[in-house]
Task: inverse folding
């Protein structure tokens, strides 16, 4: 079965501290992994996808197939990073649907 | 480009009534997806449609729920005889044929069944 686990419901850090939002997945094939972000009163938007291997707003995420993880990291958190973060998986073979984790609420304190 | 438009933003229905949720995809997008988010849960896939075709409805409950994406007009998610357990946020997303940039989500419709 396809499953995405985000073990932390809430995560609180201070401004300037490193932040890591954990994501583990369960899937037997080679999935495509994404991070979506939802800022307060805004719609869900794509932050990162593992295929593009890019850094957006200082965030990076590396797919670790051995550990089946796709953790989201930022070396120096900013207050504007406070938001809900969702990890999502798209199964292999061009399947269009996404499997989402339950999300982690990140709060960056001043 | 107005993005993915969902209406209404909030919908209140009494048990047994019908709920109709609308989604207008982004201009140029021909693929529409519906997701449901129950309280304290992640988004759960319901259905994927292209114009006049249901491609994947594996996440749709077997009864009372239906979806369409007609040749003209928005995509409609219809819930008949709503029950309290249908209370949730329903999100629509759209994408072009090439999904290289992922989905674009709407703001969602929050359905409350009283």
Result:
């Amino acid at each position: 079965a396809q499953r995405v686990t985000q073990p932390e419901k809430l995560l609180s850090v201070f401004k300037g501290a490193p932040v890591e939002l954990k994501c583990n997945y369960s899937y037997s094939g080679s999935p495509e992994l994404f991070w979506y972000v939802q800022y307060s009163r805004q719609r869900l938007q794509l932050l990162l996808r593992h295929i593009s291997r890019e850094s957006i707003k200082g965030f990076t995420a590396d797919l670790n197939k051995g550990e089946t993880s796709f953790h989201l990291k930022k070396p120096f958190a900013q207050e504007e990073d406070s938001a809900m973060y969702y990890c999502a998986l798209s199964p292999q073979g061009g399947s269009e649907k996404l499997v989402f984790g339950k999300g982690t609420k990140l709060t960056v304190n001043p | 480009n107005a993005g993915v438009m969902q209406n209404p933003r909030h919908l209140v229905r009494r048990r047994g009534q019908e709920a109709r949720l609308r989604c207008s995809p982004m201009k140029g997008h021909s693929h529409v997806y519906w997701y449901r988010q129950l309280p304290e849960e992640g988004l759960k896939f319901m259905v994927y449609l292209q114009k006049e075709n249901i491609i994947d409805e594996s996440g749709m409950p077997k009864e009372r729920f239906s979806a369409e994406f007609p040749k003209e007009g928005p995509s409609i998610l219809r819930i008949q005889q709503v029950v309290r357990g249908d209370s949730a946020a329903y999100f629509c997303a759209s994408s072009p044929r090439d999904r290289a940039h992922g989905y674009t989500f709407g703001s969602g419709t929050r359905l409350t069944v009283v």
User: Anything to note?
Assistant: The mean pLDDT of chain B is 92. Chain B is about 0% helix and 50% strand. The first strand of chain B starts at residue 5 and ends at 7.
